[in-house]
Amino acid sequence: MGPTATFIAYSYSAVTIIACIIAIGVWKSTRGERKFIDPEKAAHREKGWLAIVVAFLVTTLLLTIFLVPYGESAGPDAQKVEVIGRQFAFQITPATVKVGQQVEFTLTSADTTHGFGVEYPTGGVAFQAQIVPEHTQRVVWTFKEPGKYPVVCLEYCGVGHHIMLNSIEVTP
Amino acid sequence: MTIARKWTLRYLLVSTLLFLVAGLMGAALRNSLADFGRMSDEYYYAIMTVHGLGAFVGWGAFAVMGASIWILAKLGFEPRKFGTLMFATTFWSMVVGVVLIVISTLFMKFGGSWVALYPLPFHPAGVWSNTASFIFVSGVLLAGVAIITWCIGIWHTVLGPGLGAERDGFLTKTGMALGFGYLWKKKFPTSKPLPFPVIPLTVIAIDMIIATVPLAVLLVQNLVQIINPDLSVDPLLAKNILWWFGHPVVYLLLFPAVAVYYYLIPKYAKRPLVAGGVIAVAWTVAVIANVLVWAHHVYLDYPDHTHQGLINTLMQPMTFSLVIPSALSIYSLTFTVLRSRFHWNAASLALFLGLLSWVLAGLQGIINATIKSDVVVHNTMWIVGHFHHMALLNIGLVIFAVLYHMVPEMTGKKLYSNTLGNWHIWLTFWGQMLSSAYWMIDGLRGSPRRFAIPLDKYDTLNELAVVAVVILIIGQLLFVYNMVRTLQGAGGVVEDPENVDGGLINETKRLGPNANTGLALGSVVVTILASALILAVKGGEEPVAAATTPTTTAPADPGAAVFASSGCNGCHTLAAAGATGTIGPNFDTLKPTEARVNEIVTNGLGAMPSFKAQLSAQQITDVAKYVAENAGK
Fold it and tell me: Is the minimum CB–CB distance between B360 and chain A shorter than 8 Å?
């Protein structure tokens, strides 16, 4: 898995455990003879909770919104790869690129929508983009390690969707 | 009350039957993934198509639509003549729509998936006919009409006498039903405070009309294009229209479920809902944001010469703002339960576990809504794990709570067994937690969604998932038995429908505090999950060679290189090249001549496209020679 997927796996597992512990706490609180929480006070504190939620969302937004893949342009030295998606194969020319040097993928579709997904040799999606017919989609990526990167179709495109596989060879 | 009772019971009956059928289909699909009874590709995708629509719209949406009618009636908003007409239209439109969808998929092999992403219905790869597409699209259109008429019915009902507004205009009354009275008392005066469940129902009624009308237009365009192929639309525009509907439709399930929470949790906690005026603000945000977040489904579309990238970027903060009504509702409900004299039975247990699932599904949603992380999870099995978690636990458990609480309320027959109900809820909860976890793990490992035959490296978890399927099936069998006995009257008669302490549910046969059973089940699940994780991660350490591009052929043959890089192996079998595709003819048995291959590669034939534009004449000659020489070897 890549760094983003690893981060998701750990952070989601952590919050799941915390949420379960809180749920057990709430369940236990209904079984004793403890005093009711004053509804007025709890309703008033809801504004505090709102502030916490908004702060969390704004922080997450600021940390991630500048990492969008849009509008990236390739430098003059970029290697150019043309990808055509069709039911049910990817035609990738050339299918061999050099490590550490930008690659500009130009994606088009011959029929319906496909998804160009490139995975790490050890598993996990490295990057992907949708290929909508009648449009040209560009993706820029720099491979950091040599190896054979599996290519999978990441948009359902019909009865042969699962055989729409290929790979890209990244050489040192 | 009798009109609301009649229609709600009909909605619940049909949706529950659809749940059982769609659930069995889901189990069959999951077993097929694990290679326990593998279906043919054509049937896998046809069943996947009807399973998705059947479970999401036919069960989830239909059930909560029905429950909403009953809740409104209980709160003093009885459907009037026009509203009743709308609810009846919704029911029959939905039923006929479902029938058409079943015919087009199960009997005519339409397998475009429930989104039928334009222009996929027009590229059937020889599997389904134009007639199948026409019937399928008509079925979806009828379901869309059902949603619109339900929304009109709800909108009409919430403006009724229950609102306590005298002689106010349509817009003012709508504002009252949206809870504006909590913010501006003087401008939106009502003779009594607005019941909280009315707010999310009004919000979704307005939003789903805005969301569904463009989709209906697109579906009509699809129908016209089937007859006249020249009338096409821009696929990117069509995709935006699909998700303009496709996001709010998720909330067609969630917002009525929130209304159920607002209605039932205070009854079980025996205290009013902890809620301040801020909740009305949150729902005002929701009514606007809900229809402005669609593009988070197309984060990975940003073709040249379009503004899609900019729209997508704006949708991340818009989507984040939709977290606010959920977060505030979860706060209100949690603090209503906290330290209350909460009455625990099958219905309230389902609500409580549904609340926990809502938190988890919401957190998964924030991950999906973040563009940076969507790049690695989009269209992987992570998403499948997410929406099954959402549909079966966040919404499904609420629907079970509705059935356990409201069927006795409506029929006057007590729920037969609280113990069986508790077991059903716990088995469903842990079964689906396990099932979704497997999918989410494989998704992070890169497993693509909608693969009839998953890649070998995901075999471990796919096989283990059958355990989760068995747990889920056992749970649903208990549910069916319990409901049948209830309707037979075996649980006795409801004497006090307003009493949640055993008034509606037969709680004489108690098995002690059932939470202990749940915790024990949970620890078993966590153990299975942990061992599965270890197995999966172990399997994922070694780099996996791409299964497809054949490496065995002699690299000296230029035809072999063309064969490999053009994707011939995707559809054709040729042992010499390690190709095992089954869509097109098998070269080893067909043994075509060089001239024949050359001609078909150049000009195409049937489903086989022409490669003239992509390959040079020399490359075509090479590949034709290569195929002719190696076929049958």
Answer: yes
